[in-house]
Hints:
Elements: H1 3-32, H2 47-60, H3 66-92, E1 94-95, E2 105-106, E3 110-111, H4 112-138, H5 142-166, H6 170-187, H7 193-212, H8 216-224, E4 229-230, H9 236-256
Amino acid sequence: MTLRSLESYFVWLVFYGFVGWVWETLLFSVKAKRFINRGFLNGPYCPIYGFGAVLVLLVLGWVRSVPALFVLSALLTCSLEYFTSWAMEKLFHARWWDYSQRRFNLHGRVCLLGAVVFGTFSVVLIRVLHPPVASLTARLPDAALHGLAAALLLLLIGDTAVTVKGLGGFNDHLRELAATLRALEEAVPEKLQTARDREMARVRAAHEEFLARLNGQQKRILQAFPRLRSLPHEDALREFREFLNEKRAELRAAKKH
């Protein structure tokens, strides 16, 4: 493979990572009714989509049958998603997404719906989107392609370094919050209304203290990955929200009586 070919594939990786970022950001922002940057990195790209697209182009670009392309792409991209989930869990001791609540999932890392979506995207990629993208890339002069690839590479390296540095100590903060919440849950009496109010105030204070200790990178990650689970402690933030909602419901019920 020539240098120009390598640079072309790298530019496509970043471009399709951007397309994936747009898709995920629109999907989650509409659902949350506010802007959410759905990338692990800070920039407008989700590398897993870029790697998935390039992998499909390299491995399955020769497939002509649409049904075969759909099935093979679904298997290939889900394998990539599963491996990425496993690798990020080993690197950061956290589960970044979890499909355990969806039907037909595998260890919560991949699910049938995701396979259908990725298979469909792959067919659109090879049959519709990539031909004009490849044509445009082919028309770029060597100097322009060299400069574009170099600039994007430096951008990704810098963004990755900033992100990894910003996440330092994040899991420790989650562990501390989990321990605090469990202690407060055990301290809440079942019958005393005033005690429940006092403990709920302490829960809010614990959560506010936790958020105050996070840096901007860590806060953005919490917003981008609401199902983030701190391992081996089970989902400290979800535990907090469920506990607080439960106590609020109890208080509302007590006031009605």
